[in-house]
Inverse folding.
């Protein structure tokens, strides 16, 4: 009799299946919200890296234009424009007639991990000097 009484009065230890299912559902909802935000953040960071790396070349192309009066000969390795380099996550930087193309080593998982190429095109305005437009190209 005493043994049966102790079995009936034992307290529950651990979690029930329903409680565990609720926790799994909450974690799933949080992951569904967090993963797309993280991918967007990662894309912006990679594009910012390409932008910051191109800044040096933008300045060199602007100086080349001021010295030469035209963008035709503002290429890699000539007229004060640096040669193409591979540094870290940057695969290449190509400058042709003042147009700068920066290519990353790898891309984004959401895009099939294709390399991202960003092209910066100069526009010359006598009042404003050299201004830059940019476009992303997935490769």
């Amino acid at each position: 009799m005493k043994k049966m009484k102790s079995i009936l009065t034992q307290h529950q230890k651990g979690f029930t299946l329903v409680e565990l299912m609720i926790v799994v559902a909450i974690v799933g909802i949080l992951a569904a919200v967090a993963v797309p935000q993280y991918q967007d953040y990662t894309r912006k960071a990679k594009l910012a890296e390409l932008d910051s790396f191109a800044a040096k070349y933008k300045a060199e192309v602007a100086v080349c234009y001021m010295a030469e009066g035209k963008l035709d000969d503002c290429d890699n390795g000539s007229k004060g424009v640096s040669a193409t380099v591979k540094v870290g996550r940057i695969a290449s930087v190509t400058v042709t007639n003042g147009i700068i193309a920066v290519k990353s080593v790898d891309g984004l998982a959401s895009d099939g991990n294709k390399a991202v190429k960003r092209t910066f095109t100069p526009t010359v305005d006598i009042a404003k000097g050299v201004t830059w437009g940019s476009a992303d190209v997935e490769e």
Q: What stands out?
A: The longest strand covers residues 115-125. The mean pLDDT is 81. Residues 16-138 form a domain with the Glycoprotein, Type 4 Pilin fold (CATH 3.30.700.10). Residues 77 and 138 are 26 Å apart (CA to CA).
